[in-house]
Design a protein that fits this description.
This protein has five helices and eight strands; from the N terminus they run ααααβββββαβββ. The protein has about 260 residues and is of the alpha+beta class. It folds into three domains: about 80 residues, no CATH class; about 35 residues; about 110 residues.
Length: about 260
């Protein structure tokens, strides 16, 4: 009898521990990421402050660390302002030419530069968020189109799709997918990253699931194939439903 009561108490205790972890997890992860950014900014500021004030200046002082973070933010703001000026563009071209002479650095630098430019573009180029058939035709994964190709042997249009992983979108893999097998979403890259990092909790309330055709975005009036289906997510009951025309049924709570 006593053993049974102890077992039940132990089960309840660990159940509360698990509930506590779920409750504090968002705060813990936020503080952890903030700490990483704060530490990175402090290290950047120390590169400037230590040579000027000495290697042991302010050692162990929190106020000095905050000062280094302020220095780092000021430097980043100055670089951002300089990048918009004519002189800044000239300096950027000089850096590009310098990096081009370093084989390994050239590969990494150019790759990161093109990826950031691709995700930061505006207008029609923002239509880069897609769904790919993974890991089976009946399941979809969020991807970001980084480039398009024409197959040299078949002439088929292909797309290089970066598929981020949850919860860290900086890790992922590249898939080469026929364009006509992609589902083009009317999401921004920021929408996709938030959706991935939050495990699907944060994101637009509507997502297209059927194939929309090459380069056509479902949900923004760009047109879709007859097979296109819109999935309505949300509502007061948290359920999802569609009708034959890809529209949510006319019921309370549907978005």
């Amino acid at each position: 009898m006593l053993l049974t009561a102890m077992r039940r108490a132990l089960v309840r205790f660990f159940r509360f521990v698990f509930l506590g972890v779920l409750t504090l997890a968002p705060l813990i992860i936020t503080v952890w990421l903030g700490s990483l950014l704060f530490t990175a900014a402090a290290r950047l500021g120390s590169v400037i402050s230590r040579p000027l004030a000495g290697p042991d200046a302010g050692e162990g002082m929190m106020l000095w660390t905050v000062f280094e973070v302020i220095i780092a933010l000021s430097v980043l703001a100055a670089v951002g302002a300089l990048a918009k000026s004519v002189a800044g563009r000239q300096v950027g071209q000089m850096v590009n030419r310098l990096v081009d002479h370093v084989p390994v650095a050239k590969t990494v630098y150019r790759g990161v530069e093109k990826m950031l430019a691709s995700f930061g573009s505006t207008g029609e180029d923002t239509r880069k968020v897609v769904l790919i058939e993974f890991p089976s035709p009946d399941m979809k994964a969020i991807g970001l189109v980084t480039r398009r190709y024409i197959a040299a042997d078949t002439g088929q249009e292909l797309a290089a799709v970066y598929v981020p992983t949850t919860p860290n979108p900086s890790s992922g893999y590249i898939e080469i997918v026929p364009v006509d097998r992609l589902v083009w979403l009317d999401w921004s890259a920021q929408d996709a990253i938030q959706f991935i990092m939050s495990g699907g909790v944060i994101g637009p309330d509507r997502i297209a699931y059927g194939r929309s055709g090459p380069g056509k975005v479902v949900g923004d009036g760009a047109g879709s194939s007859p097979a296109g289906i819109d999935l309505a997510v949300g509502g007061s009951d948290g359920q999802a439903a569609v009708d034959a025309n890809g529209q949510p049924p006319n019921r309370p709570g549907a978005v």
